[in-house]
Design goal:
alpha+beta; 2 domains; globular; 379 residues; Copper Amine Oxidase, Chain A, domain 1; 11 helices; binds zinc ion; Aminopeptidase; five-stranded antiparallel β-sheet; 17 strands
């Protein structure tokens, strides 16, 4: 479906608040884009290195790299699926203004997200339940694994002083609308939905995290717009927090769970679209993949998932408040609200994952080692 009003709508959606003069906006495919040089300059990163098929921008502690013609970008070595593809036009490599606003900005400067309050309450949502088993594999059912991980995470979060609310604490069916309505009763909370995946062939592996697709952005795996992409949902009020929370949780999952990185993606699942608090949906591996399912069935892996949730919540909380582990002034306090070009030091908040080879290769090797450890321990 085509929408003549789309250009107008996108302009409305992407004000690039008060910083428009710093950007050379280029129209491409009826959509506003900016050159990666502008991104590098604005975020005080190094000079972009442009290749035939990819680009990279690096500065100490931070990096962005992306593949031309695709929606894949790595920010500090964490994979994101962009709203729109990276394009080459003339000699310029362009990224959509929507992606700058909805991904780069909240991820690179989480301390500048407006209205992001301190996290006191975590609503944990164990996917499925009751007659809805979710994904099934030879080693169990998604509904059981999700609830077990949620209960483990609850204990860890409560031990650190968080209040934890559960959409379900036993094997019962709770409709999606009811889960969202329950979460909305806690305005100072964040929402974390725990799921596991299933693929049709049983060959897909790894973890992925879903944040609500912003208004005017196609859902995953859809290249074209549909009418529903233009609908406003309650969750859109939290677009910046949603992606910051996804970043914190997904990178913690990569570190703790050591599974293949399928990236941070966009969707309009009912639970994340109908909540008014920041929220994400986590997929902790595939129930019908040989290695993933073995890990998911193990106690140690479920502990790792629970620890990743705790670490992710802590990292999100410190990132949005601009807190730093040292006694030096908080980055967000140093960067004044009126100075749009000041860039807080985000290294402590969303520090890159350091690995000698590409992340997925290293994770794949680590997964094999992890699998052997589990086999040895007899879990
Ligand atoms: Zn599920």
């Amino acid at each position: 479906m085509r929408f003549p009003a789309l250009i107008f709508l996108c302009v409305l959606l992407i004000p690039l608040e008060g910083i428009a003069s710093a950007w050379n906006v280029v129209m491409h495919g009826n959509r506003r884009h900016v050159p990666i040089e502008d991104v590098a300059r604005f975020y005080k990163l190094g000079t972009p290195v442009k290749g035939e098929k990819e680009f990279r921008i690096e500065s100490p502690g931070r990096s962005i790299r992306g593949k031309l013609g695709t929606r894949e970008v790595f920010i500090n070595n964490v994979k994101y699926i962009l709203c729109f593809p990276i394009v080459k036009k003339g000699g310029s490599i362009l990224i959509s203004a929507m992606d700058v606003t909805k991904i780069l900005e909240p991820v690179l400067r989480p301390g500048k997200i407006k209205n992001a309050g301190p996290v006191r309450t975590v609503v944990l949502d164990a996917g499925h339940g009751g007659h809805d088993s979710g994904a099934t594999g030879r080693r169990g059912m998604e509904k059981e694994a999700a609830l077990d991980v949620v209960l483990r995470a609850k204990r860890l979060l409560e031990a650190q002083g968080y209040t934890v609310r559960l959409t379900r604490s036993r094997d019962v069916f709770v409709p999606l609308e009811q889960r969202a309505a329950y979460a909305n009763r806690f305005p100072d909370a964040i929402f974390v939905s725990v799921h596991f995946n299933k693929s049709s062939k049983g060959t897909a592996s790894g973890i992925e995290t879903f944040a609500l697709a912003p208004r005017g952005v196609p859902s995953m795996d859809e290249q074209n717009f549909s009418y529903s992409d233009l609908k406003q949902h309650p969750g859109h009020a939290r677009d910046p927090e949603n992606i910051a929370l996804a970043t914190a949780l997904h990178s913690s999952m990569l570190r703790k769970m050591r599974l293949y990185d399928r990236g941070i993606k966009r969707a309009r699942f009912a639970v994340i679209r109908n909540i008014r608090i920041p929220g994400v949906l986590l997929e902790g591996g595939f129930m019908n993949h040989p290695l993933d399912s073995q890990l998911i069935a193990s106690s140690s892996f479920r502990d790792s998932f629970a620890k990743a949730i705790l670490e992710g919540v802590n990292r999100y909380s410190s990132a949005i408040s601009g807190r730093s582990a040292t006694s030096s002034p908080a980055p967000s306090a140093v960067a004044t609200a009126t100075d749009a070009t000041s860039v807080p030091d985000i290294r402590r908040e969303f520090s890159p994952i350091r690995m000698s080879t590409t992340l997925n290769e290293a994770v794949q090797r680590a997964s094999e080692t992890f699998k052997k450890e589990i086999e040895t321990n007899g879990n």
